[in-house]
Design brief:
By secondary structure, this protein is an alpha/beta fold. It is 52% helix and 9% strand. It has 14 helices and five strands. The chain has helices at residues 14-25, 43-55, 69-75, 95-105, 127-138, 158-162, 174-183, 190-198, 203-211, 214-231, 247-264, 277-286, 289-308, 314-330; strands at residues 32-37, 82-86, 115-120, 144-151, 165-168. A five-stranded parallel beta sheet has the order 2-3-4-1-5, with helices on both faces. The radius of gyration is 23 Å and the shape is elongated.
Length: 332
């Protein structure tokens, strides 16, 4: 569980949080909130903070008191009336997980009148789990609140939408994201700006990139991709692919090719690879836009295959995709 004391620093989210808490204070709060937000945007921190506020015995406007028994239990990750459901990596949220919580909700609250269910990644519910949840959303028990978080890019069942109050959590402006990262201890630098652009301005993803040195890793890898293009040689790139998890590197190539396509079409805004502008412009001059688009399609298909095909050697998917890029894009 994350700290619930830092939401005021997430200035792009705090105004939404204030509107939601004000609605509850004036008797207009909804029992089921659907919170749409890009991943790594602070949605998890938002939901934990709101959950603690809903459980708090001595709310102070939009702030939980932090001292009552409910806050203490919550902060020690042991509140018996707070239920957090999240899928394991690569899996769906099962109907058994939902049924277990529904059974607990039917009983009396162990602490206060309030119960809070936080489902992180509600788009990962199986169909059976979603249907089981819908029945509870239709007939909620008193003082029971649902916080349903989903990535903004995913589609949900219309029936879930119809039973929830929808809130969209905005992404930060560039200035807000930069300020927050500086507050986390990162110096103002080109690397900080690059970390934000390569992660679509998602602050928590940018923070992870800075902590793990991904900015330099990406630069080194895309330099190898350039050698791969110039030499049309599989061995210029394949040995540098992290076969245990090649998805981030495919995302880096996709961003580079997308900026190249934009450049070829005369679009010079919204680039992710501003730090590689010279390479982008050079490739855009040397390859037709259609070929660049074909390269993008191959990279996206590789990523889809790696994420969805079970039991297939990942090395074969990567090799096949890189050979297609050589034959159909660089040489075709």
């Amino acid at each position: 569980m994350v700290s619930t004391t830092e939401l005021t620093h997430l200035t792009w989210l705090y105004p939404v949080y204030q509107r939601i808490t004000q609605a509850f204070l004036t008797g207009h709060g909804h029992h089921a909130l659907l919170l749409r937000t890009p991943n790594d945007n602070g949605g998890e921190q938002f939901c934990f903070t709101l959950a603690q506020w809903l459980l708090c015995e001595h709310k102070q406007a939009e702030q939980a008191c932090g001292h009552c028994r409910q806050c203490q239990l919550f902060q020690h990750q042991s509140h018996p009336d707070f239920y957090w459901i999240a899928a394991e990596k690569g899996k769906k949220i099962s109907i058994e997980s939902i049924r277990e919580v529904i059974d607990k909700l039917s009983r009396h609250s162990q602490q206060t009148a309030a119960k809070v269910v936080y489902i992180q990644g509600v788009e990962l519910l199986t169909e059976a789990a979603a249907n089981a949840l819908l029945k509870t959303l239709e007939e909620p028990t008193e003082h029971c609140y649902f916080l349903l978080q989903t990535d903004i890019e995913h589609q949900l069942l219309a029936t879930i939408y119809s039973r929830c109050q929808l809130w969209t959590l905005p992404q930060p402006t560039l200035d807000q994201a930069v300020k927050w990262l500086i507050e986390q201890g990162f110096p103002q630098s080109e690397a900080l700006q690059t970390a934000l652009t390569m992660n679509y301005y998602r602050p928590f993803a940018a923070k992870k990139s800075l902590e793990e040195g991904e900015v330099a890793q990406r630069l080194d890898f895309l330099r190898q991709f350039w050698k791969f293009y110039r030499n049309k040689n599989l061995l210029m790139l394949f040995p540098y692919v992290q076969l245990d998890n090649p998805i981030p590197q495919l995302n880096w190539i996709e961003a580079f090719l997308m900026d190249t396509l934009k450049c070829a079409l005369g679009i010079h805004t919204g680039w992710q690879c501003q730090d590689l502008r010279q390479g982008v412009e050079t490739l855009a001059q040397q390859l037709p836009a259609l070929k660049i688009y074909q390269g993008l399609s191959i990279i996206r298909q590789m990523r889809t295959d790696l994420l969805t095909i079970n039991g297939v050697n990942q090395e074969l998917i990567v090799v096949d995709g890189l050979i297609k890029i050589i034959e159909e894009v660089f040489e075709g």
